[in-house]
Amino acid sequence: MGLMSANAAAASSAARQIKVMVVDDSVVIRGLIGRWINEDPDLLLVNSHRNGRLAVEDIAKSKPDIVILDIEMPDMDGLTALPLLLKTYPATKVIMASTLTRRNAEISLKALSLGAADYVPKPESNSQITTSTDFRRELLNKVKGLGGMPQRPAPGAGGFRASRPAGATAPQPAPRPGAMRAETATAAGGARPVAAAAAAARGAGGIALRSFGSARPRALLIGSSTGGPQALEKLLGEIGPQMSGVPILITQHMPVTFTAILADHLARASGSPSAEAQHGEVVKAGQIYVAPGGKHMVLAKQAGQVVVQLNDEPPVNFCKPAVDPFFESAAKVYGAASLGVILTGMGHDGAAGAQHIVDAGGSIIAQDEASSVVWGMPGAAAQAGVCAAVLPLAQIGSKVTRIFRGERQ
Prior knowledge:
- Its EC number is 3.1.1.61, 3.5.1.44.
- Belongs to the CheB family.
- It is found in: Cytoplasm.
- This protein is α/β, with parallel strands linked by helices.
- It folds into 2 domains: 132 residues, 3-Layer(aba) Sandwich (Rossmann fold); 209 residues, Rossmann fold (3-Layer(aba) Sandwich).
- The strands form 3 sheets. A 7-stranded parallel β-sheet has the order 8-9-7-6-12-13-14, with helices on both faces. A 5-stranded parallel β-sheet has the order 2-1-3-4-5, sandwiched between helices.
- Helix 2 links the parallel strand 1 and strand 2.
């Protein structure tokens, strides 16, 4: 009986493992990432391949939950393989892996539009990859987050901090098909729990929603991560023409090089001027400002004007740029006239900063679980009780424009 129980437990543990395929033309990288995966009890390496063609031929047999896909490979590169992998086995999620060149950054963002779930920048050389603890942590966290590993217990109310000790943050679960959507709070109703079915779908006791602030916002502040580039293009494509009277400031978790290209994409999507924020520049209405990779973007007042300040302080929540210091600084500058939006993303960055915004009288909208690639960041804010609305991505744009028109919520 004891042996049967042990075998059943082992089978159950194996069933919960996230199955991973690695596709890279470097035997060193395949071996290294494969070893990292095999050393993690939550992960299982099902196969590795040296090019996209072999991966496409094998994916229906291996059935990986996650594919880590290199961009530059002989015979069939990553961008060519991506749609074929998703067509052959739609259940998989693909993480693009590339070095930090502008060309690879462009390809990675294009890959997101073709269905890739996320990307991870690789260090320049094999020796750097071997010694990079940051790359290992980021890669494995993204695999687990996209693979739907259960999150660790959340802290109690008020327990979110701008920075946690190493190891205290965990990837959040990926959305489940059919997850219920949160209802919004009315101005008259104030804070009230989400429908019971929605709470049950998340295994939570309900999400309390606040009333929207009474002040008309003077800036739109957005934080996002995994799935963010696609969500930002959709959102700004919808609201861009209607937001010429206010600035839009964005912190998206992205490395150097990627953020400049993201800003270009957002300019095309929105029809509004968009660029990486510059240190000391005055914030102007009608402009989209994207926090540059590798720098924190915060706001300050100088001579009566709001200005951007970039700093090189340590990462917050393992992120740089991070949403928490951005939101906190915006609350000091705009006060009750702050409207923050937290889009899809892994982790909990933004929840502590959102608390500063609501403490100043401003409002927070979070993307709902069903429309998020990963309901980590917006879920953390929702569970912290700082949101006035938790909405599908398709409804956030109209809500935002109504708020900026001064319509009663």
